[in-house]
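Why do we care about 3D structure at all? Because function follows from shape, and shape follows, mostly, from sequence. That is the central idea of this module. The next example makes it concrete: a single protein chain, its amino acid sequence, and then its structure expressed as tokens.
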Amino acid sequence: MSAKVEQPDQEFSGLRNILWPIHDHEMKKFIPMGLMMMFILFNYTLMRDTKDVLVVNAPRSGAEVLSFLKLIGVLPCAMIFMVIYAKLANIMSSEKIFYALVIFFMSFFALFGFVLHPLGPVLHVSPETIDAWRADIPNGLYWPVAAVANWSYSLYYIMSELWGSVAIGVLFWQFANATTKVNESKRFYAFYGLIGNIGLVLSSGCLNVGSRIGNAMKESNTTLGYRDGYVENLGFVTLCILAACCIIMYLYNWMQRNVLTDPKLFDQSQVKTKKSKLKLSIGESFKCIFKSPYLGLLLMIVLGYNICMPCVELIWKSQLKIAFPDRNDYQSMMAALSFCTGIFTIIFTVIGMNILRRCSWRFAALVTPIMFLVTSAIFFALLSYTRVAGPFEPINLGVLSTTVVMLTVGIGLIQNVCSKGTKYSLFDSTKQMAYIPLDPELKGKGQAAIEVVGGRLGKSGGAGIVSALLSIAGGGATLLSLTPVLGPVILLIAILWVFAVFGLNKKFTALTKGA
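And the structure:
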């Protein structure tokens, strides 16, 4: 029986084994799943970049608001959603839940794009009222006031974050895990990521088209509601989101009718024998991690990325607003980030596959933190110079003359692309490899514990640090003004991340020696 399972992998050789290890008869399953992943990431990128444009550039707002939204908006809503999802799972089939959730998100984004956003000046609190509120409240609430005043933008931000968690983590991967055989997953899953990143590239094109529409309306002075033409810009982006949602549901329905009914591609018995996923409470997760030094080191690695990267990204977005105050131009830069990240990730995934096969686990695991440390150190050095010279100080780089803020934005863009690209291609893979040598009980409990503590709490850790510093500083403290404190803290956490890799490597090597 096992020989029969392994036989398909043995049929590939040479470049086919590296570049496309998919059988012809499997295309019927692989192609629609890959396209589904692509359109889900396409939508997530559109939503992610749009939410930043809306919140960061809202009246009396800035990138500083994002940390508060992540902490007091996204995290509680994500937990509430998971409770609702668990109840829905008890009364509805997985197919009905899939359609219901996609339609729910479609309804919200349609409502926002065509009703709430055009009426924003009427629905939101005026800038003068925000100033009056800030004069009467504690300094620590300076930035959260902007989130409340521009409430529909904050709601869009939360719903966009939920789409990433729900559509990718719940709808796609649960469906993929339920319909993919073990030997198929070894070949399919990495390529789902490759095809998915094409969605980032496509989304950047849509965002650029939307920006051009907004700028054209602004120049013709025929825009609706906002003078910058962003109503028309967002209307186009919303249509792209809705169209992608329709395609996602069509692909899912096609899979239900043509793949799940084909015994050659789907075994109904795998649904019946599927074990429920182990779930641990926060307290049980900490207890499990504290009992195992191995899991403790793995947690440090996961927290390292989840704390450091969001902090640097927030600071970069604050500089981006200074360099590009117009929302259409800001969106174009976010589109450039998505395009570059998609291309870099696609290329580096192929490189990463070979690094994992030819180099040690330690080498592969160190690529992401080292990349983060080097690029972040350069970025923070430029920020230090910005605080002294000012953002619009001319700077001559030989063949290129620019300003300090534009150079900072460029270096920050490179930092984002390189750190995210290596994360998607190597960090995630080495993290999953680290679970393999554990005994079955510790592997199950350990992975559940890391998911709870490192995933849910870790993603809010960076936002918590930034929010705390902004609240302590009070008043109109900005992310740039906090960099003398925030920069060293982030770099220190990244250094601890590197030491954790070395420590875990010793234990990983000992457990896998002779395997």
